[in-house]
Amino acid sequence: MLERRKRGRPLGSGVKNYCALGCRFTEREYSLIQENLKKLKEEYGSNNKIIFNLFKRYGKTLEEKNDKNKIKL
Fold first, then answer.
1. How many domains does the chain contain in total?
2. Which of 29, 57, 17 is nearest to 37 (CA)?
3. What angle do CA 31, 32, 38 make, to 5 degrees?
4. Going by C-beta distance under 8 Å and a sequence separation of 6 or more, which residues neighbour residue 56?
């Protein structure tokens, strides 16, 4: 049988050693995310609702930018 080599970056390599929401971050990024998640959890209750509402707001912002660009043309 052939030996399988491990794929991907080994844990602990590099500077991104902290994990939040399924992604790896630096210590500074991680602490910023955790602080804001703590505040938003009081309002929305779960990470799922937080992420959903952030994308809704971001989508509205993108639509407004597109509308402004169409007016300029």
1. 1
2. 29
3. 85
4. none
Cα distance between residue 38 and residue 32, in whole Å: 10
Residue 44 and residue 51: Cα distance in Å, rounded?
10
Please state the pTM of the whole predicted model: 0.58
Please check whether residue 11 lies inside any domain of the structure. Answer: no
- Considering the domain boundaries, does residue 38 fall inside one? yes
31, part of any domain: yes
pLDDT digits (tens, 9 = 90+) for 3-13: 877 777 666 66
Please give the DSSP secondary-structure letter assigned to residue 72.
Answer: H
The pLDDT value recorded for residue 38 is: 93
- What's the one-letter identity of residue 16? K
- Dihedral angle sign, alpha carbons of residues 61, 63, 67, 72: positive
Q: Which domain holds residue 38?
A: 18-72
Indicate whether 23 belongs to any domain.
yes
